[in-house]
Design a protein that fits this description.
The protein is mostly helical and 230 residues long. It is built from nine helices and no strands. It folds into two domains: 103 residues; 103 residues, no CATH class. Helix 1 crosses helix 5.
Length: 230
């Protein structure tokens, strides 16, 4: 695995390999921070307890206070914003695009990587029996491949990576007309639609992870360092 190169300022002299490593590490740092739960375990337990008893209205006075605290006072939010700004700056330097285009690509990259990360199960929710996510070395390899693809103008000779990205695009495009599609299938009512959407997302996550697993296995066969100890 390439040595991680820290970067405190954008003016430091670095070669292309070091710049790409710094960008990858910043992207994964942002992915980790942005994926942390915004509510504490106690808050989640209270929410679920009230939801099961149809008493969520009791939380209405609390929600604005909680959101305002997170938005204006939370160190977690400040860390996420600083991390996002850092990875956007690094992407702009690597690609030469403007800030909005860099933000769009960073958002896309984190969205493509997030389903590979195993998060702690939410309190009160049934654990899912989905394929395991990526280990740290595999996540780095996936980030490297996606960054190379993005910085090359979304072009790649890697056929299996193309299959992975096609699975992602198919799901993303299908979510745009989910409501209308469910109505056409005769699925009406908020709860029924929520269950249908959750089932679709879960099925897609399994397919997406399995497709990445094929890619990881291919990299291992080719001798790429995508598993611990290699």
């Amino acid at each position: 695995m390439a040595q991680t190169v820290g970067r405190e300022s954008m003016g430091e002299e670095q070669g292309p390999a070091e710049e790409r490593t710094a960008l990858r590490d910043a992207l994964l740092r942002y992915l980790d921070l942005a994926g942390q739960p915004l509510a504490s375990t106690r808050e989640l337990r209270l929410h679920i307890w009230l939801q099961r008893r149809h008493l969520l209205l009791l939380l209405l006075p609390w929600y604005p206070v909680r959101v305002a605290w997170w938005f204006f006072l939370s160190g977690q939010r400040r860390a996420i914003v600083a991390s996002e700004d850092h990875v956007i700056d690094l992407y702009r330097q690597a690609s030469g695009v403007d800030r909005q285009a860099a933000w769009d690509e960073v958002w896309r990259l984190t969205g493509q990587l997030a389903p590979l990360v195993d998060r702690p199960d939410f309190v009160g929710l049934e654990p899912t029996a989905e394929p395991p996510g990526a280990n740290p070395a595999e996540l780095e390899a996936a980030a490297d491949a996606l960054l190379a693809y993005s910085l090359a103008g979304r072009r790649s000779d890697d056929e299996l990576l193309g299959v992975v990205l096609a699975v992602w695009t198919e799901h993303w495009d299908s979510m745009a007309d989910t409501h209308e599609r469910l109505i056409q299938q005769g699925i009406t009512g908020r709860r029924a639609q929520d269950r249908a959407i959750a089932a679709e997302v879960q099925a897609w996550r399994e397919r997406y992870r399995l497709t990445w697993r094929r890619w990881f296995d291919q990299q291992a066969e080719q001798g790429s360092p995508t598993s611990p100890g290699q």
